[in-house]
Amino acid sequence: MTSAITQETKVADPVAEGLSLRGITKQFGTLTANDHIDLDIVPGRIHCLLGENGAGKSTLMNILYGLLEADEGSVHIDGRAQHFGNPKQAMAAGIGMVHQHFMLVDVFTVAENIILGREPSRAGVLNMRQARRRVRELSDRYHLDVTPDAVVENLPVGVQQRVEILKSLANDAKYLIFDEPTAVLTPQEIDELMTVMRALRDEGRAIVFITHKLREVQAIADDITVIRRGKVVGTASPQDSEGRLAELMVGRAVSLRVSKEPPEIGDPRLEIEHLTVADTTGAVVVDDVSLEARGGEILCIAGVQGNGQTELAEALIGTSRPTSGTIRIDGAQTAHMDPGDTIAAGLGFVPEDRQRDGFVGEFTVAENLVINHLGEYTRGGNLNLARIRRNAVDRVEEFDIRTPSVDLPVSSLSGGNQQKVVLARELSRPLSVLVASQPTRGVDVGAVEFLHGRLVAERDKGTAVLIVSTELDEIEALADRIAVMYRGRIVGVVDAGTPREVLGLMMAGFSHEEAVTSLRPDEEKKAADDEQQ
């Protein structure tokens, strides 16, 4: 019989060469974000931390980088215990981090950002020549193609990420953490990033790659650790199927394919003509957009985050006012309506930030399920509380919302169940148009399966479904047509079967014709050019 003492001695020793985390635990109030996590990061390998948003991956790496302090556990490098009270100490130990949300000073140049905090000087004078030379050396060495004197705010998102990588390399980081680095990149930029990561690995650096995207894990990983609800639940091989990886993430078998029949497309239900929207500074963020979404179809808007999709969706619901252009729902003008009037006109809206715009966290599940159409539950100025509760019980069952009671606040639910509450509310009344922004952001694979099924079911009722998503896998799974948005403009509307490579180039600003031409073999391009001449 194994004694308790023997069981305790099974805790692994730190690796002799490399980085080890042992028993890392972190709590935020009653939430345990990391629960006694052990992890070994070995030089010369790419180690993927796979898990859904909220699983605890970023918290773990923020502890390693000195941004957070663990409640329990230890960090070792080459067998020696370390304590990082801040990022500067972590960087001094050879750890670098490429953050999901870039830590750059927009008004500084590339060189200024890279030397910030460790400025080279001579006789007390800042040596910018040396800083520029260092940027060029690293840029050439890793094929990152960054200009030292370029101002960061003028750079595309993909180039800004290269600057983040250069910051870590300039500090000679041996251990590089990439936290959800592909969230704001086109497919081509993702491929370039993976090439850089492999080059760094082959040079002997250790890479930690945090993601929830199964395709990317299979493409880049040497080692895979899966984290679910703050705990390590297993390891996997890059050769494992997407289904196996998804099962580890969720804890049960899930279907990764959306089952849907060909669409029965009807008349236009949402018509957008020459719509222009400016932000609070007066900058145009939606630029002369014209689109139509027809009944019985799912029209997806693809694009890298920050290209006007959010502002377009807000203009449709009425939380922002266009400077020009028209919006019609079933032929009726709605461009300058308030959200209440737009909802009454038949628009359902799933916002991209559910916690800020999708529900009131302190309100109960029952209250949130009727909050934008309370008039239907009011008589003589009084709310019919019994009817509100009956509605909630029915919706909870229909949408498989996991909650002990409809009287609990929505803030007590998981992210996936919060999203189900939002979608259930919007789909509990007849709709002409459903606008869903990032409909599965931050939810687990199992909830994604359910939510996708409900979106397809709404399409099949004859509703025009407009989905805004930065996830190409989601767009490929759901779309009947795809509109690609870049810098506030629609650069093209294409069929659902359009190759990812073409979509990626369109997301970088190419027209459909330019994207297709650029991807043809050289011989084919030459023949086409000769024919045109």
From TrEMBL:
UniProt KW Magnesium keyword: no
Signal peptide start and end residues: none
Classification via InterPro entries: AAA+_ATPase (IPR003593), ABC_carbohydrate_import_ATPase (IPR050107), ABC_transporter-like_ATP-bd (IPR003439), ABC_transporter-like_CS (IPR017871), P-loop_NTPase (IPR027417)
Entry superkingdom: Bacteria
Known EC number: 3.6.3.17
Location relative to the cell: Cell membrane
Keywords carried by this UniProt record: ATP-binding, Cell membrane, Hydrolase, Membrane, Nucleotide-binding, Repeat, Translocase, Transport
GO molecular-function terms, A-Z: ATP binding; ATP hydrolysis activity
GO CC annotations on file: plasma membrane
Primary localization: membrane
Domain ABC transporter: residue ranges: 19-254, 270-515
CDD domains: ABC_Carb_Monos_I, ABC_Carb_Monos_II
SMART domains associated with the record: AAA (SM00382)
Membrane topology: Peripheral membrane protein
Parts forming coiled coils: none
Listed Pfam families: ABC_tran
Protein name: Ribose import ATP-binding protein RbsA
Native source organism of the sequence: Acidipropionibacterium virtanenii
Gene: rbsA_2
